[in-house]
Amino acid sequence: MSPPVPDRILLDDPGLLLRWIASDPAELDFDRIDVCEIWGLVALATLGRRERGTLSIRETIGETGASRFAHALGLDEVVAGTPPIQVAEPERTVKLTRLRDFSAIEPAANQISRLLIARDDLADTRKAVSYVLVELLRNVLQHSQDDLGAVVAAQVRQRGSDRSGVQIAVGDAGIGIFKALAGMHPDLQSPEAALERALWPHLSGSFERGLTGSPSQSNAGLGLFFISEIAKLELGKLMISSRGATLILEGGEEPDQHGFRFLQPTGLGFPGTLVAFEIPLGEIADYEGLMGTIQRRAQERQPKRQVHHWLRFEAPPPTISPLLVRFICENTQAASETARELEPRLFRRDPVALDFRNIEICTQSFLHALLYAPLRLAWARQAPIYIVNAAPAVRSGLEFLESYALGG
Fold this sequence. Notes:
- By secondary structure, the chain is of the alpha/beta class.
- The protein folds into 2 domains: 8-298, no CATH class; 304-405, no CATH class.
- Helix content is 38%, strand content 17%.
- It has 13 helices and 15 strands.
- The chain has helices at 15-22, 38-48, 65-72, 75-80, 105-116, 123-143, 177-182, 191-198, 223-233, 287-300, 332-347, 364-381, 392-405; strands at 8-9, 27-29, 35-36, 56-58, 93-99, 150-158, 164-172, 237-242, 246-250, 259-262, 273-280, 311-312, 323-324, 352-355, 385-388.
- A 7-stranded antiparallel sheet has the order 5-6-7-11-8-9-10. Strands 12-15-14-13 form a 4-stranded parallel sheet. Strands 1-3 form a two-stranded parallel sheet.
């Protein structure tokens, strides 16, 4: 017989829910739960999707606080695979949503972050939340092998008596991080080792250790590294639970005084991958400076290399018409296709130009897909790539890409 479902599902004690899930329960009565944070709803909805048939969920409107919360957040709808009917509580919660299409990642991240953080004075926190969402959702679609895609939701909640925090969660029922990394990293011998290594810069299941991506891969291997560094630098919290292990990282008052531990007992992990990220509301006052700091921290963990500059942050010759990047922003498939279209021009030594106007956020994964291969070809053929209208954080990301794309 399965142990009873915990009556309080909190990120402060995730083991209660994960141990119950590990008992392989067949059904869940939501009316037995008093409190359930957003990460718990994402976990249960991920397993409860009817096509999967893993967990039968029953909830009655109004019986408990958690049941009312689950109903308002669209648990019935996401389990059944139907679109959310209405917004739950803007500036407090964003409803449970399924996502299966790469082209929907950036719009979904923008919508979630703007619904959750509408105030202009919190714009830097909003940008960071959007960045984290894009990276987490892309990881699911690229690596999980869950044909039902991702489940995502977000919430603003109290962190202590005088602080509010943003909590976001993304779940899938796929192969897990250990299996996703094992093919390219056979030295990894356990799920714990895989989760710890997944936080390294330039670590991916798409290329071998020591490399920084390749022209054939739209993956920089930086997503979880950036997310973990945001948590370290901004008093955040990160939980990654994936088939056989659960890692918890908590930022400290100083960047290198963060807490890092694995949940006990050994072997406890979500059947798929579940990531929960939490950050104090308004903690981030300078998004561009934060991204620059994280890029420098990544560079410090890479061998020093000679850098050739073929990105030119200046107006192109008047005969060149710049490509507007915003039409493909954060769609790595479209970015890879654009990269292939640029390559013949660069091979002919024809300069190209990219216009980044109206783009505040560019993840390294997207920039990698767009310019990793063209940059290497530009260096080989000595053909410049002109960049115009790049916001400081975007320019910093482009310079970081150039530093590792032309490193060897």
